[in-house]
From TrEMBL:
PANTHER family: ORNITHINE CARBAMOYLTRANSFERASE, MITOCHONDRIAL (PTHR45753), ORNITHINE TRANSCARBAMYLASE, MITOCHONDRIAL (PTHR45753:SF3). L-ornithine binds at residues 159, 219, 223-224. One of its GO terms (biological process) is citrulline biosynthetic process. InterPro entries: Asp/Orn_carbamoyltranf_P-bd, Asp/Orn_carbamoylTrfase, Asp/Orn_carbamoylTrfase_sf, Asp_carbamoyltransf_Asp/Orn-bd, Orn/put_carbamltrans, OTCase_ArgI. Belongs to the aspartate/ornithine carbamoyltransferase superfamily. OTCase family. The lineage of its organism: Archaea, Methanobacteriati, Methanobacteriota, Stenosarchaea group, Halobacteria. Keywords: Cytoplasm, Transferase. It is an enzyme of class 2 (transferase). GO terms for molecular function: amino acid binding; ornithine carbamoyltransferase activity. This is Ornithine carbamoyltransferase.
């Protein structure tokens, strides 16, 4: 079992626990680990839309012998005035774990404070640690040992990027981050990465970031909830698109957490090209989260 009760960000677990979750995920994926969590229930609360997170958790719970419940805020009393703290206390008494996708990270922490069942972050404005688990599993499969991997993050310093920075620091992956100056990762995240192992190299030049990289990772420029910033962000991210010109001299693998906006942060040719590993990455959400759930819940 993991030391932590909750999984609010990737560094709630230690580096050795991260390795254990990834190994368990790989064993579950290969069929070597047949752990079952019979009758376990995962309550899933979504304030934002989702394809991968919703379906991979729901499918994963079914495959483990348990059950997942989809709860939109409008479906439950939360959307009609019941406080988060009361919702958390009640869900935590019914469910074996609660997975939440929310806007405000502070709301996630409030749920964790009041729930006596483990709370798993399925994305907030600040973090997406379940994505990081899948990303690291995919890198290990496609590239190899983390201490020999050079990775580049190109694009927005957003939730997916921030958890990836922390995960790379914990795993010992050599990471360079290229963002426009006004959309950099939070200083606090860079400082946490330094404490965990190694802070990424930070630049505003995508070409510098991808030089020598084995994997190049991007995400949407306009995250859910940022629609009003669209015009301003599109201007700021000029030159940050993963396209054939930027990738002309590299055979690095290309990663994207999806959903992708073809023609914005990545071209259709690159997303569908030989270097892309995005579909394996998406599939690994399922395996990685099963590894996490059994490590959180299994005795
Ligand atoms: N990558 C990811 O979390 O996708 P969804 O928004 O579809 O869940
Ligand atoms: N950064 C994106 C990730 C979606 C999975 C968003 O928050 O919308």
């Amino acid at each position: 079992m993991l030391e932590t009760t909750h999984f609010t960000d990737i560094d709630d677990i230690s580096a050795s626990e991260l390795d254990r979750v990834l190994t368990r995920a790989a064993d579950i994926k290969s069929g070597d680990d047949e752990t079952r969590l019979t009758r376990a229930t995962l309550a899933m609360l979504f304030e934002k839309p989702s394809t991968r997170t919703r379906v991979s958790f729901e499918t994963g719970m079914t495959q483990l012998g348990g059950h997942a419940l989809f709860l939109g805020p409008e479906d439950i009393q939360l959307g009609h005035g019941e406080p988060l703290s009361d919702t958390a206390r009640v869900l935590g008494r019914y469910g074996d774990a609660i997975m939440v996708r929310l806007f405000d990270h502070a709301d996630l922490l409030e749920i964790a404070e009041h729930s006596n069942a483990p709370v798993i972050n399925g994305l907030t404005d600040d973090a997406h640690p379940c994505q990081t688990l899948a990303d690291l599993l995919t890198i290990r499969e496609h590239v190899g040992d983390f201490d020999e991997v050079q990775a580049a993050w190109v694009g927005d310093g957003n939730n997916v990027g921030q958890s990836f920075v922390l995960g790379c620091a914990m795993a010992g992956i050599d990471l360079t981050v290229a963002t426009p100056p006004e959309y950099a990762m939070d200083d606090e995240v860079i400082a946490r990465a330094a404490e965990l192992g190694q802070a990424p190299t930070v630049t505003t030049d995508p070409e510098e970031a991808i030089d020598g990289a084995d994997v190049i990772y991007t995400d949407v420029w306009i995250s859910m909830g940022q629609e009003s910033e669209r015009h301003q962000k599109l201007q700021a991210f000029e030159g940050f698109q993963l396209n054939e010109e930027l990738l002309a001299d590299t055979d690095a693998k290309v990663m994207h957490c999806l959903p992708a906006h073809r023609g914005e942060e990545i071209t259709g040719d690159v997303l569908e090209g030989d270097q892309s590993i995005v579909w394996d990455q998406a599939e690994n959400r399922l395996h990685a989260q099963k590894g996490l759930i059994v490590e959180l819940l299994d005795e």
